[in-house]
């Protein structure tokens, strides 16, 4: 049996899918918020989040960094990956990485230089519009049933859910009108995924963390 330690900053951003998967999978884990930048040198490539898995039998540790890599590892370990062969796996990774592209621009806008924000906003506008159009098509191909793949929750459903939570959360210097790109009028399929995940009993543990915050 494994136990986990999730290391991340005291914010809700890149570790949310990881936290959701751990809670929904009833995994045994604790969280650490390392002092930064003092603890940078102790993390793989000096970045967070980091997942530490400890084997209860022999005490060995497995350290993994990069949020998407951690997500996929846990999704594989606990049965959250879509099934259907190599093409389904490739599509799943493609869709998840497209969310990461949006995250990158949001972070650059929030933490980057003021002078560069108009360009970042223009790039986000193009990317978000393309994202919505493409993902709405993928969801329609799956029957517009509130899931990206099949008829039950998978890693990609959870990733989309946390994206919409993030864009709806107010941040100082957030891209103006960011939530509007993903509104019900423009993205009904995405919003159906959100409601499906939010209403699933498996999300109860994670939803409790939203109340706490």
From TrEMBL:
Gene3D superfamilies: 1.20.1050.10, Glutaredoxin. InterPro entries: Glutathione-S-Trfase_C_sf (IPR036282), Glutathione_S-Trfase_N (IPR004045), GST_C (IPR004046), GST_superfamily (IPR050213), Thioredoxin-like_sf (IPR036249). Pfam families: GST_C_3. Residues 2-82 form the GST N-terminal domain. GO terms for molecular function: glutathione transferase activity. GO terms for biological process: glutathione metabolic process. It comes from the Eukaryota. This is GST N-terminal domain-containing protein. It comes from Hirsutella minnesotensis 3608. The lineage of its organism: Eukaryota, Fungi, Dikarya, Ascomycota, Pezizomycotina.
